[in-house]
Amino acid sequence: MSGSNPYQGSFGSQMTGQATYGTSAAPTTAAPVGDLIKDTTTATFARDVLEASRQQPVLVDFWAPWCGPCKQLTPIIEKVVTEAAGRVKLVKMNIDDHPSIAGQLGIQSIPAVIAFSGGRPIDGFMGAVPESQIREFIDKVAGPVVDDHKAEIEAALGDAKALFDSGDLENAGGLYSAVLQADPENATALAGLANCLIAMGQTAEARQVLSDLPEAMAADAAVAAVSKKLDQIEEARKLGDPQALEQALATNPDDHEARMKLAKIRNVEGDRTAAADHLLAIMKRDRTFDDDGARRELLAFFDVWGAMDPATLAARRKLSSILFS
């Protein structure tokens, strides 16, 4: 965007709520390696593995000093567990010194890695497998990594939409703006901010927000819909006095040009039902008017309103009855 977000320093300055999303936060501190990787014995196995696995998955590496593949596996699995930053723990058991647990589990070949969760074994593998397979194994037993940043953005967008729907335009705009600071190419936030500006009557500012966008953002459905909405608003401003148009229709209900203009005006005023009904009335009377222009205009309204908007759904039903009756 040419001006990035021209309101990121001012939009929402009068807010009574909080819109601090995207501010710097202290990084999450990974658990110390000593808490993630340890040796265990027969005596401490219940505490180190069974009890600990009720909190998070625990991988038990059964090994022996004479085992060559064990020596290959150890640095790899320790590296992956450390990088997993607490999603799993690793407990190592020397089966030469402590053979009973391995015997109870039926382990006959090492290295063998058994994953415990909820106090019981749930999965495992044998041999010095590649690092990629160890990562896949951890994802399997601990679940895939959650992108907290993405989840926070999605939550903020949901909050912003709820604020917008409730009419709290200042706080909605502030939250959309904050998301854009954290993710400048977030098309949903951009469209949301533009819609807030439009609802506040700041159409010039909304147009500026949508100027010089990267191709991918400009092609986004939500952004394209807001751009069409601005076009419709600008066109409606040039269509004359709605009261005069109403009077013209009262005199001549077949004045399709006046009815088309009035539909466009009612649309930007927010009276979607009236806007659709005017266009549907033209279609009922004369599909040839403006080369079926009423239908094209109605479809353009749908693009802006959204496929699941109640006005869209209602108008589509009426449109179908006209087209297929």
Automatic annotation (TrEMBL):
Family annotation (Gene3D superfamilies): Glutaredoxin, Tetratricopeptide repeat domain
Superkingdom to which the source organism belongs: Bacteria
Cross-referenced InterPro entries: Thioredoxin (IPR005746), Thioredoxin-like_sf (IPR036249), Thioredoxin_CS (IPR017937), Thioredoxin_domain (IPR013766), TPR-like_helical_dom_sf (IPR011990)
This protein's record includes keyword Zinc-finger: no
Key words, A-Z: Disulfide bond, Electron transport, Redox-active center, Transport
Record's keyword annotation contains Disulfide bond: yes
SUPFAM superfamilies (alphabetical): Thioredoxin-like, TPR-like
Thioredoxin domain ranges (all copies): 25-143
One Pfam family in the UniProt entry: TPR_19
Family matches, as PROSITE patterns: THIOREDOXIN_1, THIOREDOXIN_2
Family that this chain belongs to: Belongs to the thioredoxin family.
PANTHER family found in the cross-reference section: GEO12009P1
Protein name: Thioredoxin
High-level lineage: Bacteria, Pseudomonadati, Pseudomonadota, Alphaproteobacteria, Hyphomicrobiales
